Amino acid sequence: MAGTSLSPAEALLSKRVQEMVLNGEEPPHLYICRKGDEAKEVPSHLTPIPVINFGLISSSELSIKQEDELQKLKSALHSWGCFQAIGHGISTTLLDNIRQVGKQFFEQPMEAKKKFSKGVQKVQGYGADVPPEEGTPLNWSDRLLLFVYPEHTKNPNIWPQSFRKVLEEYSVNIKKLTEEISKAMAKSLNLEENSFLNQFGEESTLKVRFNYYSRCQRPDLVLGLRPHADGTGYTIILQDEVEGLQTLKDEQWFTIPTISDALLVLMGDQMEIMSNGIFKSPVHRVVTNSETDRLSVAMFYSPDPNKEIGPEERLINEETPRLFRNIKNYGATHFGYYQRGMSAIHVAKV
């Protein structure tokens, strides 16, 4: 029936990128987005993303090393908007296990994965991103997105039994880590340590997305993830050994190094708002390659959408005036702009 016909983007997104690769297909035109006039790419060995040792920050004993690490954290988030966290307390075994179950899921036959499929316009489940507005290119990737916290947002029917136990354990550890990161960021700004946690609220949200970036015959034409800044509070990313994530700084695309036991912590727009612009929400993207598939596991941590957030009052004075107004449910606003390939943070500016 004409009333139920799919748009060209919806039709493409009802197919998996993995299927196209296995069939030897070249990227359809709606995926093509790269042009020859892009900003320069900087290789990972020349990308000085700060490494922050949470073993030092979380120590109960105050020390010069702890204070130095907090100042290093503040500097990293002001300059880069991200950092590599080590000493975070999550075991190498658990990090390896969550990578392994993610890869095993995507390596299954298509029929097995389709049990967890979502509708083209749905968010939770296995598939592709929701179709963007016409004219916005598609991402060369497949993903499995699941709501983790609050508990009532979970849909157990689309949690694969094969890795439910591992994901539950990893989620508990990440939830604990968000508390440590939020407290550390507050302390780095000389705020009361629960300042940001109070803004996130008791009903703060945590979502996990397993991203599978298939190799591509023409990596010069497509992007695994188009350029954007996250609408989260912040995002915690576990990478595998394959590079691909890049962040934009000084009009250059810096390739983020892969460190096996590190977690990349990336600020979202809501953290930039709460810090009154001190912490930056960086634009980032994912490039593909022609040789190897790539997996990452992203945990999106955001304030309760029903709770108003805004700049911490202690960060506002005559020298540093308020840059942002208070706002509620910023994530929904951000999503609308993302679907058009646009930034959203201007809507919160004073």
Question: Into which percentage range does the β-strand content fall?
Answer: 15-25%
Shape: globular
In DSSP terms (H or I, runs of 4 or more residues), the helix count works out at 10
**C-alpha-based Rg, rounded:** 20 Å
Distance between the termini: 48 Å
Give the ordered list of helices and strands: HHEEHHEHHEEHHEEEEEEHEEH
- Major sheet size, sense and barrel closure: 8 strands, mixed
Query: What's the rounded overall pLDDT mean?
Result: 94
Q: What structural category arises from helix and sheet content?
A: alpha+beta
Summed up, what is this model?
With 350 residues, the protein is an alpha+beta fold.
Write the layout of secondary structure elements.
Blueprint: H1 8-13, H2 17-22, E1 40-42, E2 51-53, H3 54-57, H4 64-79, E3 82-86, H5 92-107, H6 110-113, E4 125-127, E5 142-149, H7 164-188, H8 195-200, E6 205-213, E7 225-228, E8 234-239, E9 245-249, E10 252-255, E11 263-267, H9 269-274, E12 284-286, E13 294-302, H10 330-338
Parallel strand pairs: 1-10, 2-3
Antiparallel strand pairs: 3-11, 4-5, 5-6, 6-13, 7-12, 8-11, 8-13, 9-10, 9-12
Helix pairs in contact: 4-7, 5-7
